[in-house]
């Protein structure tokens, strides 16, 4: 179980720096520093390695609270957690201390999956890996298109095509940030999540076979069984954290902003009240769906796969609608940055295009419920 005091301390630091992180497009070093010392980087890792042993429900709570104050910090945290649970599922034998370093905050991790060649289809890397003649090392060659925490992470969980060369076979390696041949080759300047440092990276290096997560060609299974559920839950929690903060700011604004000539607040307008109601109801329904999906991932049943596929898409789209409504009901006050709504509006645009994208997930969901293979 995590300490709510520890979370609140991180939330305060993240909130203090969020506006500057967004305006200047800088990595939230203070918030990440607070996360490192809070113990929360090990939230979902086993207690035996120094983690807190929490499950998916607690994970979505923590991510949601971070997102409500700083979307960039929440996304950086989510990418670390997704990398950490994947390392925990298949620890690389040559890196016996990696998991405890990720649990205790010494090592910030991230996922380097998306590639220039296969775009949002992260499950189909076009990158290559080649086993050395002695069979104890692997050459990796990859052009990664977006890597959150690029240049700031201590370890990158990198996907590549397997040395088998068989289409669809994927390997995953834990690559330390200081590895020669691992380089950030561009900068990140996005509409939202501007502190993410989600920059392109080039990988042209050789790593020991012992850095591999699981056996050869185990990467695709890890993506589907471990990364997908945790990433989708966390990404949905980011969307709802952002939507929740926009909704709260909108409720507060329309209840306080006055039309002095008629002696009323904006909340006296029925159209505004109806939009506030729709936002609140959608948010409540999505939060309930997220709690159900997280519970289901913690104790899998027949519906877990569809919940995992459905929750990210629906929360991403709900956040688009809610943050847009918040902008609308708050008028110029939101547009001109007087309220903490336009940042949430911009940050919320990222969720649906982060892979698996919302549109891809709707297709997968439809396939799952109609008995078609996902791929
Ligand atoms: C802020 C941010 C941070 C990111 N961080 C990381 C990270 O840390 N690690 C990482 O690996 N990646 C990361 N990504 C990359 C992300 O996961 C996606 O790969 C990327 O956003 C896809 O963009 P694209 O232009 O290549 O999409 P495209 O693949 O070109 O998609 C364009 C459109 O086609 C649609 N589409 C594509 N395939 C399908 C399908 N099968 N069915 C229906 N519609 C489809 C998409 O939904 C989208 O609307 C990040 C992205 C963002 C925006």
TrEMBL record:
Coiled coil regions in record: none
Keywords: FAD, Flavoprotein, Oxidoreductase
Transmembrane annotation, as ranges: none
Domain Acyl-CoA dehydrogenase/oxidase N-terminal, first and last residues per copy: 12-85
A GO molecular-function annotation: oxidoreductase activity
Organism: Prescottella soli
Cofactor(s) for this UniProt protein: FAD
EC class: oxidoreductase
Family named by the database record: Belongs to the acyl-CoA dehydrogenase family.
Enzyme Commission identifier(s): 1.-.-.-
UniProt keyword Electron transport present: no
Domain Acyl-CoA dehydrogenase/oxidase C-terminal: 218-355
Protein name: Acyl-CoA dehydrogenase family protein
Acyl-CoA oxidase/dehydrogenase middle domain span: 111-204
PANTHER family tied to this protein: ISOBUTYRYL-COA DEHYDROGENASE (PTHR43831), ISOBUTYRYL-COA DEHYDROGENASE, MITOCHONDRIAL (PTHR43831:SF1)
Pfam families reported for this sequence: Acyl-CoA_dh_1 (PF00441), Acyl-CoA_dh_M (PF02770), Acyl-CoA_dh_N (PF02771)
Tree of life domain: Bacteria
């Amino acid at each position: 179980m995590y300490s709510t005091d520890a979370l609140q301390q991180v939330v305060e630091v993240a909130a203090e720096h969020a506006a500057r992180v967004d305006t200047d497009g800088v990595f939230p070093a203070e918030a990440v520093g607070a996360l490192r010392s809070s113990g929360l980087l090990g939230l979902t890792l086993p207690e035996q390695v120094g983690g807190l042993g929490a499950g998916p429900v607690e994970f979505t709570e923590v991510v949601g609270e971070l997102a409500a104050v700083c979307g960039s910090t929440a996304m950086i945290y989510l990418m670390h957690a997704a990398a950490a649970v994947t390392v925990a599922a298949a620890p690389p034998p040559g890196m016996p201390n990696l998991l405890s370093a990720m649990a205790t905050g010494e090592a910030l991790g991230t996922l380097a999956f998306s590639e220039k060649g296969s775009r949002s289809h992260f499950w189909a890397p076009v990158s290559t890996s080649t086993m050395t003649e002695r069979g104890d090392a692997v050459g990796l060659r990859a052009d990664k298109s977006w890597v959150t925490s690029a240049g700031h992470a201590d370890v990158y969980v990198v996907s590549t095509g397997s040395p088998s060369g068989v289409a669809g076979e994927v390997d995953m390696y834990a690559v330390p940030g200081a590895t020669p041949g691992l380089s950030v080759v561009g900068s990140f300047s996005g509409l939202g999540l501007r502190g993410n440092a989600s920059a392109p990276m080039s990988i042209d290096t050789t790593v020991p076979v012992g850095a591999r997560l699981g056996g050869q060609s185990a990467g695709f299974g890890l993506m589907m069984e471990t990364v997908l559920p945790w990433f989708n839950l966390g990404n949905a929690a980011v969307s709802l954290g952002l939507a929740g903060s926009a909704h709260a700011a909108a409720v507060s604004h329309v209840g306080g902003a006055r039309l002095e000539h008629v002696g009323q607040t904006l909340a006296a307008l029925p159209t505004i009240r109806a939009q506030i109601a729709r936002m609140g109801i959608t948010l409540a329904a999505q939060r309930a769906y997220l709690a159900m999906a997280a519970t289901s991932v913690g104790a899998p049943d027949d519906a877990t796969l569809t919940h995992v596929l459905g929750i990210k898409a629906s929360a991403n789209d709900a956040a688009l609608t809610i943050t847009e409504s918040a902008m609308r009901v708050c008028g110029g006050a939101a547009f001109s940055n007087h309220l903490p709504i336009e940042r949430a509006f911009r940050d919320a645009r990222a969720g649906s295009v982060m892979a698996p994208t919302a549109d891809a997930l709707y297709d997968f969901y439809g396939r799952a419920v109609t008995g078609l293979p996902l791929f």
